[in-house]
Amino acid sequence: MTDDKPWLSLPDEDPPERGLAELMAAARSKAELMARPPWWKRALDLMKRPPVLALATVVVLLGGVIVVGRHRDEVQDARPVVQPVVQPEPAMGAGSAAELAPVAPPAIEKAEEHAPPPPPPPKPARHHAPVTKTSPAKAAAVKQKATLDTSDRKAALDSSDEALELAPATGATPAGVKQPVTKKPVVLDDALARCRAAAANNDCAGARACAKDVETRDPAYYNANVATDPTLRPCL
Amino acid sequence: MFHDTADEDLMVMYQKGEVRAFEVLLSRHRKPVYNFILRFVGDRETAEDLLQEAFMRVIKGAEAYKRQAKFTTWLYTIARNLCVDQTRRRKHRKHASLDAPMDAGEESGSLMDVIPGNEMASDRKSVNKQLHEQMQRAIAALSEEQREVFLMREFLDMPFKQIADVVGVPENTVKSRMRYALEKLRLELDEYKDLAKAAP
Q: Which pLDDT score is estimated for A139?
């Protein structure tokens, strides 16, 4: 032993054997109890283990991805299918423009119904630009507008507006492609303005024709605005 | 089979119902725990009872044992608490001398007599006996707090951190108690150094 620590020379004593058997008996009975814990405790212990927690996390994440993926698929399925567009026959009098303007799918057209009409394009339509105008008549009118000089612009606008109005009113393109009837309040407002202008110029026949046209398109609008208009009433 | 297995793993195996694992734990720790208790309380019969009680508590609390906890920390915490309770219970009594007979009935001698001696010259044996006797007295004279720290550090080779965990005080406190314990013991045993050296 070291001189520094003389107590380390103290020898250890062996413990007596007394009580050892009793101890082992107690250990055995306890082991039997511990070996068979209740099912809920085993399940709870299992769930507390880190690998199980990690597995549960992965399962939850995968489940989330699957659910989100399915939801996305459902949303995509619910969307209207863009059908192939039948290229319409060129409209009479607007041949070249109709050729250039592809016909947009009905769904897009429907969306346009509720949107305000776009301002007249300042430039002529480019050959390969994606044009969303639906009817060849519209495209022709747009092209016509674009090519006219500034002095003739107002008159041309009138005529093009008429073209825009008349095209949907017929309900069919010259080529026989069924087009949805469009009701554009702004167009009707323009028609009403023209009716007023005709009535103001004592052109009652023109005003009546114009009013009839509005009535044909939208009777409700006619009753609300045209029939009650003080300028138009004498002519009607 | 389990002799190279760590205590903590053995305890986990016992939790799963493996009695053999507990047997290995018992054979591994019974002797050091017994000697720790014996040196703490200074009484063989009490040490036997406390040893039995300590392992009974291990069995009872086996279910609650967590693998993260060091087994020896847990075991010696139990043993130490039992010793502290025991010494407090008999505090009012006069502390028995180490020279006093340990067991009333049998052919008992002092604590020094139960320490097995090697075959050696009678002079040397006599000196060792005196030295051991003096050491036992010096250890018993330490305060309870110093004694437990001293026993765990010197006889069980426990790190200060683990002793701090067992005793439940900061590590620096343990070191401080250990320093005072050593100073006190060296002072007590100083005169016997020369005696030990002079012995043939």
A: 54
Q: Read off the amino acid at residue A68.
A: V
- Chain B: closest CA distance from residue A4 (Å): 8
Q: What separation, in Å, do the N-terminal and C-terminal C-alpha atoms of chain A show?
A: 132
Span B173-191, average pLDDT:
90
Question: ipTM beyond 0.85?
Answer: no
Q: How many CB atoms lie within 10 A of CB A63?
A: 10
pLDDT reported for residue A184: 60
A36: which chain B residues are within 8 Å (Cβ-Cβ)?
17
What's the number of CA atoms in the CB half-sphere (13 Å) around residue A183? 9
Which residue in the set B31, B56, B63 is minimally distant from A15, CB to CB? B31
CA gap B14, B23 in Å, rounded: 9
Structure confidence by residue, pLDDT tens digits, B59-75: 999 989 988 889 999 99
Nearest to B115 among A10, A19, A22 (CB): A10
The residue to which tokens 């049998």 are assigned: B106
Asked if the model's pLDDT at residue B14 lies above 50, the reply is yes
CA dist., res. A19 & res. A28, Å (int): 14
Written as six digits, the tokens of A190 are: 């323009």
pLDDT in tens, B151-161: 999 999 999 99
pLDDT score of A167: 45
CB proximity under 8 Å: A 5-44 to B: 5-16, 18-20, 22-24, 26-28, 30-32, 34-36
Quick check: A13 and B38 CB within 8 A? yes
B34 and chain A in contact, CB less than 8 A: yes
- Pairwise CB contact (< 8 Å): A14 & B31: yes
Q: Which of B18, B56, B185 sits opposite A26 (nearest CB)?
A: B56
